[in-house]
Specification:
about 230 residues, alpha/beta, single chain, two-stranded antiparallel sheet, 5-stranded parallel β-sheet
Length: about 230
């Protein structure tokens, strides 16, 4: 059983969008997993073998306890019944308390489809009398992370301080050398500069160094008023 499961459209999406949050969660003793929907290939400098090695390296950097790839079609991902079944089976097997999914508004069609797929699979996972694996399960909470393809500024539900884990996040991203995110010698800003600066912006928004935002469609329950109080450093 997982505490947190990140659904990533392509290998490197989890690291880019919520790599700091993943590292933070693991440091808190939570059991964290990532399911990559596609291989992410073809790309100009990548291959299936290269991406597999890079993903394994990034997984080790973050310390993720569970990771698998559903091998759904890259560049033509669809939120169809077959994909829904595959992802719902993952939800049933891993039984995550929290799912992090791609936000629905993005320039990459695969990310848009992935967001819808997560919503649909979450619903299917709870159904009885189906051909799905394992026992029915309703993941109790789903939140959404932003990708980097569209420069939008939605209002997040929460912003998570990842300051102590920013370098671990960037180290995991650097494992994907074939994707050219850290182009040494290129004029600033490189893609990795942009990723760091976005984390800095969200950190600024909550009076800390670096942070990552999460969006939600549902309200959150708070059991202790102290959870609403600002930290001393604020």
């Amino acid at each position: 059983m997982l505490d947190l499961l990140v659904v990533a459209t392509h290998p490197d999406d989890a690291e880019i969008s919520v790599g700091g949050l993943v590292a933070k969660a693991i440091s808190e003793g939570l059991k964290v997993g990532i399911v990559d929907l596609t291989s992410g290939e073809p790309t100009p400098r990548g291959s299936l073998e290269i991406r597999t090695r890079e993903t394994a390296a990034a997984t080790r950097v973050l310390g993720v306890q569970f990771r698998e790839n559903l091998d759904l079609p890259n560049r033509s991902l669809q939120a169809d019944l077959n994909a829904r079944r595959e992802l719902a089976n993952v939800f049933r097997r891993t039984r995550p308390r929290l799912i992090l999914a791609p936000w629905e508004e993005d320039a990459h069609p695969d990310h848009v489809q992935a967001s819808r797929l997560c919503d649909d699979a979450r619903f299917w996972a709870k159904l009885s009398r189906t051909d799905l694996d394992a026992e029915p399960y309703w993941p109790p909470r789903m939140m959404y992370y932003l990708s980097i393809h569209l420069r939008i500024h939605p209002k997040p539900a929460v912003v998570v301080d990842i300051s102590p884990w920013i370098e671990q996040k960037l180290s995991a991203i650097r494992c994907y050398e074939s994707q050219g995110l850290d182009r040494t010698g290129d004029p600033i800003p490189t893609p990795l500069d942009d990723i760091r600066d976005r984390a800095r912006y969200w950190g600024w928004s909550i009076h800390t160094a670096y942070a990552e935002p999460l969006l939600a469609r549902e309200e959150f329950r708070i059991d202790q008023v102290r959870s609403l109080l600002p930290l001393d450093r604020e």
